[in-house]
Specification:
Elements: E1 4-5, H1 15-28, E2 34-38, H2 46-58, E3 63-67, H3 70-79, E4 86-88, E5 94-96, H4 100-124, E6 129-133, E7 140-142, E8 144-151, E9 157-166, E10 170-171, H5 173-181, E11 185-189, E12 192-194, E13 199-200, H6 204-214, E14 219-224, E15 242-243, H7 248-252, H8 259-271, E16 276-281, E17 289-290, E18 295-296
């Protein structure tokens, strides 16, 4: 299996030029596209990322962008008097408990402020972006989980009802291909749709992995406010530079918080046929480069 890579390298400003030869080779085989997921934590430089995406588009690279918006959602939820509630599953994954009111705040921020902010940034850079949620056209579709299991501080597992979450099981490839074929750059965000048409919160990293698999992408970039998986978080010198796909379970024990979902999404993408996955730093995407053989995520 192909490895998940995240290693240090130099070469600021080279991403588009290094990707171009790979794109030409991949295009002959009918793929050669990348899926980019930008996290929603504090410290993301969206202008820098959009500069990079515009440069890649100028090179002819097909791109689908997926984004989050957690930090801004948390801030606005607090202001609206409905603060976020995070839960930990028995398997150790942290997620947002999404009741109906939380879902509506989530849609307001993710689909409104953050999504349209990214679309505007790209339009200012002459990239004809189209912002859509996974609910639109059922781009992200899966089963609605109305109940979730949560481990409390006392170590006891409880069942919480009224949740609106799901996992992406199907991607509307036809709609995404239609946009790409007509020169648009899709900018996608949760929520998705249940099979019954109910809006559900889906994990952005795993949704991006599902898109990369469905679109037969050459590369998946999972960008956040850290350079990748750190053995001793938050010490960036402890960056783990290579993860073999068949050793992911061992690294999940090292991953902290949201990084668990990123590592899981990376593994799902590689298992689904994506050539390479990068866990990189979105605060300066120009510190990321790809060559013909390996994917490289770069630290300062």
């Amino acid at each position: 299996m192909a490895p998940v890579e995240a290693a240090a390298a130099a070469g600021a400003g080279r991403a588009a030029r290094v990707l171009a030869p790979d794109w030409d080779a991949g295009r002959e085989q009918g793929d050669g596209m990348i899926v980019v997921k930008i996290g929603g934590s504090e410290g993301i430089d969206y202008d820098a990322v959009c500069d990079d995406l515009a440069a890649l588009r100028a090179e002819g690279v097909r791109i689908v962008l997926v984004h989050g918006g957690s930090a801004e959602t948390n801030r606005i939820a607090e202001l609206l008097g409905h603060p976020p509630q995070f839960i930990t599953s028995p398997s150790g994954f942290s997620s947002r408990f999404t009741d109906r009111q939380t879902l509506e705040i989530f849609e307001m921020v993710y689909c409104g402020k953050v999504n349209k902010g990214l679309v505007e940034r790209l339009q200012r850079r002459s990239v004809n972006a189209v912002g859509l949620s996974g609910l639109d056209g059922r781009i992200f579709e899966g089963k609605h989980k109305a109940t979730v299991r949560s481990v409390g501080e006392d170590g006891k597992t409880r069942v919480l009802r009224g949740d609106h979450t799901g996992t992406v099981e199907r991607v509307n490839v036809a709609l995404l291909e239609l946009l790409l074929e007509h020169g648009y750059l899709p900018v996608l965000t949760p929520p998705g749709s249940s099979f019954e048409g109910v809006a559900v919160n889906v994990d952005g990293d795993r949704a991006a992995a599902a898109v990369a698999v469905a679109m037969k992408a050459d590369t998946l970039l999972l960008l956040s406010n850290v350079p990748g998986l750190l053995r001793a978080f938050p010490d960036e010198s402890s960056l783990i530079d290579r993860i073999a796909a068949d050793e992911v379970d061992a690294y999940l024990e090292v991953a902290q918080g949201r990084m668990k979902k990123k590592v899981l999404g990376a593994a799902e993408a590689v298992a689904g046929g994506v050539g390479r996955v990068v866990l990189g730093d979105a605060t300066d995407m120009w510190r990321l480069t790809l060559d013909a053989d390996v994917a490289v995520g770069v630290v300062a």
